[in-house]
Design a protein that fits this description.
abc type-2 transporter like fold; 4-stranded mixed sheet
Length: 377
């Protein structure tokens, strides 16, 4: 049996060696996608197109305007002479954000009172709008605190009075600079591996059936179970190689640290690959043509990506969808790969995810093998 599986394994690698386009698809696209996703996938917002109307025209209002424009978060889109210009710019999507500094702004600040600031936000993209509003609040708050401190020092209001202040010292564990790429790059590794392995497994076996070579192989002494092992084992090895390459690119290019045990990540990756191979094998037993396999992959992979928690928090989903995430292997693998990369934890913390992946892989592989044998009969 081992000899027959070995010969089939050699046959698959020889076929891959002869197919230059397949070798290109296995190596270049994942690396390119890693670089693209690493730069494009981020929670941060920069250069928000902004319209600022200064109705006060004071030293304080100009200082606040400079504080907004000096930051990399906002970029001046167009000048404004009246409030209608700000409103029209936001409504016409010429600007995502409009800031109006009303008349009397500086006078209120000099009296030590709260000075209002009007902000108009285009809420079409709710996520970007909320983030931009957070930046506005942070910059305005820092400006107000600094101005109040300077005003108190100039007027001497602090003399003879005890100063009571509370200082919050913030410390972010595992990602001190809140670099969103440290969060996204490990997730991209799992997502690219899922897409590549499912596509390879489904298309390879469907292609054998479509061109008629599947029947030719099965008339040989090789048994169906041996054929399944010999056909999927190369993709398992390819998956390990792809994870290594893409992870290496992520660490070298984006400087994502790896603090965990490589053996823990290897175990989680193997379990994840078994589950993804089973998904591809199940698709191959249902589809008769490569076109059907492509449509089925699109139907399966998109929900798996959305329900995995890659970019959408699972806790924010409806209860029914939260239950569905428990059968998504990518959900557990993302926890494993992010925890090993950033936290450096081991099996003592990740065993529930490992156990869940092992159970999903066992059930899916058993169903795939039974379905495949039935489709061959």
């Amino acid at each position: 049996m081992l000899g027959r599986i070995l010969h089939l394994l050699i046959k698959e690698f020889l076929q891959l060696r002869r197919d230059k386009s397949a070798r290109f698809r296995l190596l270049i696209p994942p690396i390119v996608q890693m670089v693209l996703f690493g730069y494009a996938a981020t929670f941060e917002v920069f250069n928000v197109s902004t319209v600022i109307l200064d109705q006060d025209r004071s030293q304080e209002s100009r200082a606040l305007e400079d504080a907004f424009l000096r930051s990399s978060r906002f970029a001046l889109a167009a000048p404004a002479r009246r409030v209608a210009d700000v409103r029209d710019a936001v409504e016409a999507s010429d600007a995502q954000l409009g800031i109006v500094i009303p008349a009397g702004f500086a006078e209120l600040l000099r009296k030590g009172q709260t000075a209002p600031l009007q902000v108009l936000v285009d809420g079409t993209n709710s996520n970007s709008a909320l983030i931009a509003l957070g930046y506005v609040g942070q910059i305005a708050g820092d400006f107000g605190q600094t101005y109040a401190q300077n005003l108190a020092e100039r007027t001497g209001r602090l003399q003879g009075k005890p100063i009571v202040s509370v200082e919050v010292a913030e410390r972010y564990w595992y990602n001190p600079n809140l670099n969103s790429r440290w969060f996204f790059v490990p997730g991209v590794i799992g997502t690219l591996t899922l897409i590549t392995i499912v596509n390879l497994t489904a298309f390879a076996i469907v292609r054998e059936r479509e061109v008629g070579t599947l029947e030719q192989i099965l008339v040989t002494p090789i048994r169906p179970f041996e054929f399944i092992i010999g056909k999927t084992l190369p993709f398992f090895l390819i998956g390990l190689l792809e994870v290594s390459i893409v992870a290496g690119v992520g660490m070298a290019w984006f400087r994502v640290p790896f603090r965990g045990n490589p053996l823990v990540l290897l175990l989680g990756t193997c379990l994840f690959l078994f589950a993804t191979l089973a998904i591809g094998l199940l698709i191959s037993t249902i589809c008769r043509t490569q076109q059907q396999a492509f449509s089925s992959n699109f139907f399966v992979l998109n929900p798996m990506f959305i329900l995995s928690g890659f970019s959408f928090p699972i806790a924010s989903m409806p209860p029914v969808l939260q239950w569905l995430t428990y059968v998504d292997p990518l959900r557990y693998y993302l926890v494993i790969i992010r925890a090993t990369f950033l936290k450096g934890v081991g099996l003592e913390a990740l065993w529930p995810q490992m156990l869940a992946l092992a159970a999903i892989a066992a059930v899916l592989l058993a169903a795939a093998v039974l379905r495949f044998r039935k489709s061959l009969d």
